[in-house]
Each structure stands twice: as structure tokens, then as C-alpha cells.
Amino acid sequence: MQGTADMRREPKGASQGRALRIEPERLRYRALIGTGGIGSGAFFALRGNHTLGREESRGGRFLDRRDYCKLHIIAHYVQTLLGPEFETIALGKVGDDEVGRALLAEMQDAGMDVRYAACSPGEQTLYSLCFIYPDGSGGNLTTDDSASSEVDGAFIRTAEVEFRRHAGRGIALAAPEVPLEGREALLDLGAQYDFVRAASFTTEEMRGVVDSGLLQKVNLLGVNLEEAAAGVGLTLTAEEPVAHLAEQAVERLTRANPRLLVSITAGARGSWSWDGSSLMHVPKCEAELVSSAGAGDAHLSGLIVGLAAGLSLAQAHELAALVAGLSVTSPHTINKEIGRGTLRQLAGDCGARLSEGVRDLLEE
User: Fold this and answer.
1) Less packed terminus of the chain by CB within 10 Å, N or C?
2) Considering only CA atoms, which of 113, 119, 125 is closest in space to residue 7?
3) Maximum CA pair distance of the chain?
4) Is the pLDDT reported for residue 46 higher than 60?
5) Would you say 183 and 200 are in contact if contact means Cβ atoms under 8 Å apart?
6) Is 57 exposed, middle or buried (CB count within 10 Å of its CB: 0-12, 13-18, 19+)?
7) Which residues on neighbouring strands pair with residue 264, listed in sequence order?
8) How many CA atoms lie less than 13 Å away from 186 in the CB half-sphere?
9) 280 burial class (0-12, 13-18, 19+ CB within 10 angstroms)?
């Protein structure tokens, strides 16, 4: 199936002019060094809203949507919004196949540094099949024996020279779809070279991350409400207010790491951020929903962009809500129309109340 994936590339230079208005000297950080999944996928729309049974055969159809994996999504927005003065270095692996080579070329065209994104001979590029019910809910099936599964600590440490080069001025990103060993090695290098360390984890991973102490190596955690709840043993119920659940999750997560900054997304119910002293809620931007896939990754990218641009976490949260809100207007998991102008337009259309720092970044 990978050979049939639609991997149309953005023309070289097409992202120029989309960057936020940031004077180079205002950049608090100069580089993002990140690891996570690099891959593609397909979307399959199921017939009927009832949950797919273990032995059930269900009809449906493939959708004309392009899927990307975690590192690619986050890094794309970081690079295109921060512009050429900022370096985005991707650490990951793809298969030595047509899809993998096309993905790396696409990342490079967007301005990312892919020198540490390797092609693994004999391996396939990470692939995900996303299934969607008519009511918009769904899930995905992801290969766990792809090239991404080979991203270990030794591979991550081959990029130590880049951490040294950006010591004290970088952000380390540990995203899912590569082994935890590799992500922990990246966080360790980030700590060694005084990087801000941002991470996200899957629902399945969160409890182990908290119990093992890995969370203590993270400065900024970006997760959805289900992932946050799983990490601290909370049960999501329809009866309990979402705001109270978010507050409980933050309280328990910061008990495990008192210095942790936290972002929790909850789809249509908005998002929360904890900056160490206060919990802030930002409602979702009212935009036409085409697909919510990739919105959480877009939100985390907005936080990283805002922090790199010198915003406080609360201000970066405002920007993140705009990036996530615009991401859902595209059928693809990367919305390549996101830029300064489209974010400014969305902010106006949805009446977003923005702080002066965010408004300055969106100026014409």
C-alpha cells in the first residue's frame, strides 16, 4: 500500500512568506532538534457507527487525504512559521523506498535539516491506516516494525555535535512513533546541553512514563486529555466536568515533576496550559472542521513556535490554539496553508482575544 500513497510535494520555496513576523534577535531559541515518527498513511471511512467487531467484515472507502507522522507534522509547522533564521533538525529513519525518499525530500523543501534522517536498507517506512466512523470518531493501526522502530539511543547520539552547537539556545522534541529508548536519549542530550525539553506520549505509554521517572526529564508536556488521564490514573466520565479533569491531571502530573509545564488539549472543549503558577483555558477556534487528525501535533508545534519567538507559555497557548484551529480545516494532517496571513484571518474570523505579543507576530 505504501507505494500507492499520494506524496505530492510542495513546490520548493512555497513556504516563503508564511513565517511569523519575528526579528532574528528576538528569537529566544535558535534550533529544534527532534525525534519521532516519519511516515505516511491512508484514511478509510467505515460504514456504520457501531464499533468494529473482532471478526467483523465492514465496508467503506478510502478518502483523498494525506497522512503524515508525528515528527514531520510538528517540525513542519515549527520550521515554516519560524522561518529560515531558525534550524529544525529531524532525527529519524525511513525505509529505503519511494515513500521514504519522497517524505525526506518534502521535509527538506520545507526548510528542515534532514542530514540525520536516515534511509534504512531493507526496512519499510512507517505506515498508518486511520479508520473513521461516520460520526467522526475513529482510530488507527500503525506498523511497529518499520524503520522508525530502529531509532535507538546510539542513533540519537550521532547528532550530539548539533546539541553542542546550539547549547543553551535549543529545544529538544521527543515525539511518539519511535522507541522510548531513543526519545530518552534525546531528552538526556537536551539536559546535558541546556535545551528546553518538550515531549508528547501516547495513551499506552503515559503510565509507564510517569512511573519510571521519565517525565522528570521533560520541561514541557503536550498531551490530550485522554493521554493525561492515563498517565495519572484518572477515569474520564461524561458526568465529570472536563475542566475539573484537566485540573486534576495537571495537579497529579506536576506532583511527579514539580517543574513541569503542561498543555492538555480536549478537542471541541478547548485546551489548558499550566505555566507553573496558573491554569489557563483557551476555547477552540470556531473553524470549519474537515478533519481533526493531526490537530494535537499542530497545537504542540504552536507552543514550541511561541516559546521560541519569546512569548510566555500563556501567550504561546493562544498561538497554539490558532494553529490547531486552522489545521482542522484541511483534510490532510499537515495543512500547508498555515502561515502568518491565514492565522491572522482565523483570529479575526473567530474573534480570538489575543495578547499584544501574539498580535505582533501576526502583523502584515
Assistant:
1) C
2) 125
3) 59
4) yes
5) no
6) exposed
7) 223, 272
8) 32
9) middle
Angle between helix 225-232 and 203-212 (nearest 10): 40
Q: Which residues of 165-186 are buried (b: 16+ CB within 10 A; e: fewer)?
A: bbeebbbbbbbbbbbeebbbbb
pTM greater than 0.70: yes
**Looking at this protein, which amino acid is placed at residue 45?**
A
Listed in sequence order, the residues at least 6 apart from 348 whose beta carbon sits closer than 8 Å to its beta carbon are: none
pLDDT digits (tens, 9 = 90+) for 316-331: 999 999 999 999 999 9
Compute the chain's Rg from CA coordinates. 19
Own/partner pairs, 105-108, CB within 8 angstroms, 24+ separation: 105/9, 106/7, 106/9, 106/10, 107/38, 107/72, 107/75, 107/76
Which helix (H) or strand (E) segment holds residue 231: the answer is helix 225-232
**Residue range 159-192, pLDDT digits in tens:** 999 999 999 999 999 999 999 999 999 999 999 9
Helix (H, G, I), strand (E, B) or coil at 347: helix
